[in-house]
Amino acid sequence: MPLIDVRHIAKSFKVQDVKNSGFKNFFNPSYRIENAVKDISFQVNRGEIVGYIGPNGAGKSTTIKMLTGILVPSEGEIVINGIIPHRNRKEHAKQIGVVFGQRSQLWWELPVADSLNLLRHIYKVSEKDFKRNMELFQEILSINEFIQTPVRQLSLGQRMRADIAASLIHNPRILFLDEPTIDLDIVVKEKIRDFIKTINEEQKVTVILTTHDVGDIEKLCDRTVVIDHGELIFDGKLEQMKSYYGNYRTLIVDIPDLQADLTMKSVEVMKIEGTKRWLRFNKEEISPSVIVSQIMSKYEIDDFTVEEQQIEAVIKQIYEDSVNVKKLRSEERGGEPAMTKAVQDEKRSVSV
Ligand SMILES: Nc1ncnc2c1ncn2[C@@H]1O[C@H](COP(=O)(O)OP(=O)(O)OP(=O)(O)O)[C@@H](O)[C@H]1O
């Protein structure tokens, strides 16, 4: 049985229509329904680290809030280790740790040590477990450097380390992290990644994290779930994602004629820098040699290279809600769940 079972959840918000929010409509405001999450299902097994990613406004935080019991799904059902989060918040709180990157759960005026001590009493953590956890927090997060400092005086990196420690003080089985490395420098990012990896490997803590950082995904996530406009568009291993989105390549051509018009079917001009142009194409639809010969029939080419699709580029495209993602959603999925498509791709061992 999966540890986290999410079935057909949806979440809608009623929001006031800003277009009609003038004085005339003051006494009679109009509303629209914002469907933040639409029919999302996935399961997570114990010990997995899942990257939950997608462009801004895709519905990531809304999902995390439903998983933690903060929000009640408008439709569908979530069962986590036998508990329905919003129905049994108290019991659920004991089994989860939560970190929202942009908000602290610590007491602003208190030194970190006092906050951790308070949480220890709230959750009734034994002396032995508390001591062991504090040693681990020091070993990987170097928490002693700022343990006596009031939270309001911490740097963002220190605050995040303190928040992560606080979320794990009660040895939860599951950790939800919403943008845990946002705006942090690379040294702190690495510390946090090491820490997540350690608690996952040594204590089998299951982790779901949302992030905009490709490094977090590459270093931590066995599996990625991608959502866009509130819908699940991919669920699988990073490598599967590469082959799923991997039909795209970039041809970099150097054309001295700055006015050259490279409008072509199945080719998209992604970037222009001086005489260089980056042309993205689907290798199933057109080959680079055909593109080059079409260009050469009109213009002189000084140089050209074909770039392989890097995983960073794939993820970047997803974050940027690129044409690529939209195209796959509308043309290739044809209503079929993305996960099925990815698994089929793997079975067919589609080459990248
Ligand atoms: N409380 C709310 N009331 C109304 N609309 C909301 C509320 N919370 C989220 N939304 C809307 O739901 C959609 C999804 O928001 P959500 O914060 O879940 O996205 P996200 O993927 O976490 O985005 P980001 O990466 O920018 O944080 C957005 O259009 C957002 O404006």
Q: What class do helices, strands and sheet pairing give?
A: alpha/beta
Main sheet specs: 6 strands, mixed
Gyration radius, rounded: 24 Å
Number of helices: 12
The strands making up the biggest β-sheet line up spatially as 5-6-7-3-8-9
User: What percent of residues are in strands?
Assistant: 25-35%
Taking the alpha carbons of the first and last residues, their distance comes to: 33 Å
Bound molecules: adenosine-5'-triphosphate
Portion of residues within helices: 25-40%
**How many runs of DSSP E, i.e. beta strands?**
13
Average predicted confidence as pLDDT: 85
Low-confidence stretches: 322-352
Overall 3D form: globular
Name the helix and strand elements from N-terminus to C-terminus, one letter apiece.
EEEHEHEHHHEHEHEEHEEEHEHHH
Pfam families: ABC_tran
GO molecular function, one term: ATP binding
Protein name: ATP-binding cassette domain-containing protein
Region (Disordered): 329-352
